[in-house]
Specification:
about 75% helix
Amino acid sequence: MTQFIAKRLFQSIILIFIVTVITFFIMNLAPGGPSSMMRMDATAEERAAIAEQLGLNEPVIIRYKDWLFSALSGDLGISLSSGQPVIERIQERFPYTFQLTAVTLIVSTVLGILLGVLSAIRRNKWQDHLINFGSVAGLSIPSFWMAIMFILLFSVELQWLPSSGVGDASFADKFKSMLMPVVILSASTLPTIVRFTRSSMLEVINQNYVRTARAKGAKEKKVIYYHALKNALIPVVSIIGVLIPRLLGGAVIVETVFGWPGMGRLIVEASQGRDYNLVMGVTVFVTILVIISNFVVDIIYSKLDPRMKAY
């Protein structure tokens, strides 16, 4: 187990390094990079001062080395748009994205497993067809279009839910503000969990040990939820790790549409303002989050299926 964790940890560090190299060099070498921060009407002295401040006079490799050593000590630079340290801006926004993605992941996982099991045990019945139709619809409808339709219906027409913001201190307002973003994000992740649970359950309930449990007179609920579901969840755990990057990617759209002050909206604001220090910091931070979540999923998966330790 120790060797497995060490191997995954080493792979994660290499992956983070590769992401920082690609992101930094693309942002610094592509047209519209850091030099685009300068005004078109800036004087030669102003341009020289800004270039000196940003370190643009140095070769890009030297700039990357300086950025990397600063990042290793926790310094991701200064936001060019606000003047605040990048790490402070990330700390301000991250709790909102964490709330949104954590609630979405819990809702998607619980509902996805329950609906997947129901679809499997009611195979080719109306419940199965209805769940499959809902899964296909959830995967097919774009998140931004669904978000706009929800706002028109529940905020403009019915006036049940707020169209943007995070609500005030009361739990009811926070719940109302979070409801539509969670539903929209769940629509892209829940169908995948449903389909994986269904196919895994269909495979497991035909195994000999499940037939044996039934032959011994065990109740059907115990056979399904104790004997079959326990083994059927092994591939579902792995797919949850794959869904986390999709969830964070979808949060960029949802947070922007609903005015949710999280990391997704922050990276959009940073891109629009050409705040490349902030874009770089948020990209690296999100990458580390995804890698850590996949690292945890790998460890859980290896506990459930010891054969994974061989890979």
